[in-house]
Model the fold of this input.
Amino acid sequence: MARVQDIEIPDSAARTALAVEELQDQEGDRMVLNMGPSHPATHGVLRILLELDGEVITKADPDVGYLHRGDEKIAENMTYTQFIPYTDRLDYLAPLANNVAYALAVEKLMGIHDKLPPRCQYIRVMCAELARISAHLLGLGAFAMDTGAVTVFLLTFTEREKIYNLAEAASGGRLTTSYTRIGGLARDIPPNWCDMCRQFLKEFAVALAEANTLLTRNRIWVDRLRDLGIVSKEMAIDFGFSGPNLRGSGVNYDLRKNQPYLCYKDLDFDIPVGSVGDCYDRYLVRMEEMAQSMRIIAQCLDKIPGGDENKSHEPVSIVDGKITLPPKSKVLSSMEELIHQFMLVTEGVNAPKGEVYFGHENPKGELGFYINSRGGGTPYRLKIRSPSFINLSIVPALFPGHMVSDVPVILGSLDFVMGESDR
Amino acid sequence: MQTKSEFGYDSKIEGDVVVTTVDAALNWFRANSVWPMPMGLACCAIELMAVGASRFDISRFGSEVMRFSPRQADCMIVAGTVTYKMAAVLKRVYDQMPEPKWVIAMGACASTGGMYRSYAVLQGVDNIVPVDIYVSGCPPRPEAVLDALIKLQKKISTQPVISKMNIVNQLTAPANS
Amino acid sequence: MAALASAQKIKAKFGDLLSEPTEFRDEISLTLADAGQIFEVCSYAKHQAGFDYLVDITSIDNYGEDPRWTVVYHLRSLKNNEELRISTRVSEEKSELPSVLGVWRTVNWHEREIYDMMGIRFTNHPDLRRILMWEGYPYFPLRKDFPLAGKPTDLPGVAFTSPAPLEGGPFVTAPGPDAISREPRVRTPEN
Done:
């Protein structure tokens, strides 16, 4: 059985008394409020120490690290393929997008990112956009629930269940998909997947319109969000914002357009950009991004090479025994494929020496992987540039001047997730 | 003393009266209204939210609301990876829950540390709190969480209550104490 | 590439301090010889060369080499759509370099994380404390001589750690000339 560890927690009254003596600005009427790690409105385990003057916040100090799992150290001890499941759990609202980001980063290091088969690129784009819709839906649902609009939560979760069905059909897992591999995908999409996807798009358009009706022109919603948490353009760039937060502040920068990867060059979509930089702008940017994602998926469904059922047997992975696993039917009968399978599983792909950085447009911002390789199958250093971590760093500069009841609104509009922030 | 949750009830003879043991009645109340305290830490929290949403409605089973305040909850569902930094906080929240309380360790990370064998992850929440039900999966399907809840309800309905309550012991204690 | 022109402009200003720009997979990198000048280089890059956005700062532990630490800065220019990487090395005895907080404000948490994980200090940083691990944790986890399983510590009232069960250490493949040397073996800091 497991060893039981006793934790000694000093008496909280004594601890508070000690802290009160030590705290310097206890003169006047400032109060320190601990918005603890276990809280319904912090999205995940985030602790914020708020110093209050009545209802107004004078200082805010976020304490992150309650979900620090040591991903980067684990990555140094795993082959590139073995690390793919850990990337699912980074931004666990959009695991398909993280898989695509990581696979593209390793493929850039290997130099094969422009040799991906076109069917693989289209499927990856569809997965990334479905993940974007899924993450924005949950962000919106949780955000609305924190401010009191509970109906939207149930509405968005019903739509997310449909996306889970699609992810499960493609990869086998609802939430943790691990769908991409270095050089391609784990397997092709099943034959009825494209029809399921079209059906989902039809139903989702209705649900999105309903969410719009419930919130966008709602008097209470607008009053709660308008002119709150204003992040100016210069502040956004200076603080390293990315993704919908950056675009909500008025900077027209989207990695899909500015540094195109996969087949985004061939697709037609718009980038919504805000003007004021308040919570309402960020909310509108996310709503519009979901509509644009629908547009991208519809185009991909029409243009996918091989069609719905892949009758022409287009490959979904690079056919190279040193990079992707050979087909199982050959492995057990042919020597060369057996050797390739063995080498790839024990030693991993043989990456060249060098360092590379790849940033991917994730729903939360720019998820970047910096890989420093000294050859071989494991990275020497893998750094995950996490958008939520960097978006959170604006909290000490943004909160002062706002009221306590604005905290869930601003946190919801920043839309971060602690799994990604703490890694 | 083991109890069985059987009700001796025949409406033709007894009318609208239920005859049962006190233990069975108390356990019936407790089992069918287990209000969870979601200690939602990581990815399992998203599946926990999905269990609470409309498709896999958990309130069908009596868990009507997810109470974030430990004082108002019965069962703490540890959903997600428990890091060493979070461990003290989790123990503190558990201590604040009033008796009777149960713990469901949801997912691989809460049960044993999962795939995170690293310097910062507590290898199983049973190192700090007593766990009643372990749910495997990464993350467990919502149906598995509902199954865990049903198993917990079965476990609750067979627990001795009256014999464990202190006030009854005092009342029935020998005269010379 | 446009980034090459900006890199050469920065190199022209600082001369021998910076290496020639190298290119790998369409990315331009510069190496800075003296880590103490990083603030001036970054400040010039932002104000004169237009790199107004800092993407990331990374630290690498070159265990067994001297200087031991490498700190890598990823800069980006949003208006010209260019990226540049500047890396610099710091020796273990010094373990310190100037903070670039005055250039971009996003650097605050990046540098705190590098201090927390690697132990490299940043001078002129107003609030250099641990961010992912707790105050009082005695080790720097991302160093190569720190085991993946962790070491036992105990800070009563705050947190405790104990080593994770890895059954002798992670079994990892290491690069090597032939298949036998590449077999997964116990990972020690040397390999």
